[in-house]
């Protein structure tokens, strides 16, 4: 069924299916109440199905830890994202307060977990405190860096992004400890 243009309105062109005069109401026009209601219900259904309600939903496979956060979701103590390099890889390491480390890499099919020894966890905590991440600049980028890794370190709500060649010295021990977990 084709449509014929009846004329311009202040909202654009008014059209109706061919064969109807412009005086007859169009049952399928988006502004008719049943169609409008159907569109709203459809939109809300899709929104809820996608987790748009703000609650529940599946957690990201890389999100892990033992400490509960908002709504019972666990939050990591520290997260390292490493990306770039010659191969353009992407890795994510997160460690929770109990020392459970989760590694997600684009080179492996599934996340891997391991538990740090109490000595390694204590050393990581010391390195994080000594980094004084809250006092660091947020970006350390080298415009000349080619095929180098870039790191995002997030600790206590602060994220510092740095290229390999200009990584702040106080953050180097943290990055070294966390990248050893990527294998």
Low-confidence stretches: 3-16, 52-67
Query: Please, what is the average pLDDT?
Result: 76
Radius of gyration: 27 Å
Q: Give the spatial strand order of the biggest sheet.
A: 6-5-4-3-8-9-7
Termini separation: 61 Å
Strand-residue fraction? 25-35%
Give the overall form: globular
Secondary structure tally: strands: 9
The chain-level structural class is alpha+beta
Number of helices: 3
Order of helices and strands: EEHEEEEHEEEH
Helix content: 10-25%
How is the biggest beta sheet arranged? 7 strands, mixed
Write the layout of secondary structure elements.
Elements: E1 3-9, E2 12-17, H1 33-49, E3 78-84, E4 89-95, E5 100-105, E6 112-115, H2 118-131, E7 139-140, E8 149-155, E9 158-163, H3 172-179
Parallel strand pairs: 7-9
Antiparallel strand pairs: 1-2, 3-4, 3-8, 4-5, 5-6, 8-9
